[in-house]
Specification:
about 240 residues; alpha/beta; six-stranded mixed sheet; globular; binds adenosine-5'-triphosphate
Length: about 240
């Protein structure tokens, strides 16, 4: 089934614990991430950003509500099917890169395919490797690369399966401003030139402004959407939402 949304959350509630200790991390969130867009998620600490990402990735099961990935509901999948879905239909980019130190760059990039028992499509692999600008480092180990280069490798790894969506959790959090900017430009290019879909959680208004639009969360609820964000407008919205 095709849909305009790569990812769609409908009425997603997530309650951790029970009784007096229950915490409502997400309180009926409905949001769609259109295919071929770059979306940032922002909100004060504890507003539910990580929970949103985890529910989107099938790492957390919503207490109620639905999560659709490429039009299929993931809430009903068995654990094994979810693992397979995470391997092949979702790309992950983390703050700490999470590359395997004993594998070289090419092996790191193609690892999700090997885990899924699939062979790389040589043309796509070439496009991904060239796109992230790491073609001359394929034989190197992660420890021989700069932080920015390691994050480029992680982005290539996230793209190698041609996922439905790339989920990025503070992808520039460990990088200096200039390198962070380059990684954000790359994520934008991944969307605009390679036709991929990226959803990024960030605390940084500058990072958020690299996206096409920003979803704001506050107290587990959707608190607005800002198209064509600028750092100033994002920061202003965040100030209205309370403490960062
Ligand atoms: N496993 C858990 N068990 C209990 N409560 C949890 C759990 N995970 C998150 N929470 C609570 O749910 C709420 C939302 O947390 P979440 O981590 O999604 O927020 P966040 O916006 O990502 O915060 P931050 O910006 O500080 O990382 C918080 O009150 C948090 O304490």
């Amino acid at each position: 089934m095709t849909t305009a949304y790569a990812l769609e959350l409908t009425g997603v509630r997530k309650v951790y614990g029970s009784g007096d200790g229950a915490v409502t991390a997400l309180d009926g969130v409905s949001a769609g991430v259109a295919r071929g867009t770059f979306t940032a998620v922002m909100g004060p600490s504890g507003s539910g950003k990580s929970t949103f990402l985890h529910c989107a990735a099938g790492l957390d099961r919503p207490t109620s509500g639905r999560v659709l990935l490429g039009g299929s509901e993931i809430g009903r999948l068995k654990e094994r099917e979810l693992t397979e879905l995470r391997r092949t239909r979702i790309g992950f980019v983390f703050q700490a890169y999470n590359l395997l130190p004993s594998l070289n760059v090419l092996q790191n990039i193609t690892l999700p395919l090997r885990l899924a028992g699939r062979k790389p499509d040589p043309q796509w692999l070439r496009e991904v490797v060239d796109g992230v600008g790491i073609a001359n480092r394929l034989e190197h180990r992660p420890a021989e690369l700069s932080g920015g280069q390691q994050q480029r490798v992680a982005i290539a790894r996230a793209l190698v399966t041609r996922p439905e969506v790339v989920l990025a959790d503070e992808p520039t959090g460990a990088l200096d401003t200039r390198t962070g900017r380059q990684v954000l430009d790359l994520l934008r290019a991944v969307v605009e030139q390679m036709g991929q879909t990226v959803l990024m959680v960030t605390h940084d208004p500058v990072a958020a402004s690299a996206a096409h639009g920003v979803l704001f969360l506050a107290d587990g609820k959707l608190a607005g959407h800002l198209p064509h964000p600028t750092p100033e407008r994002v920061a202003e919205r965040m100030t209205h939402l309370g403490e960062w």
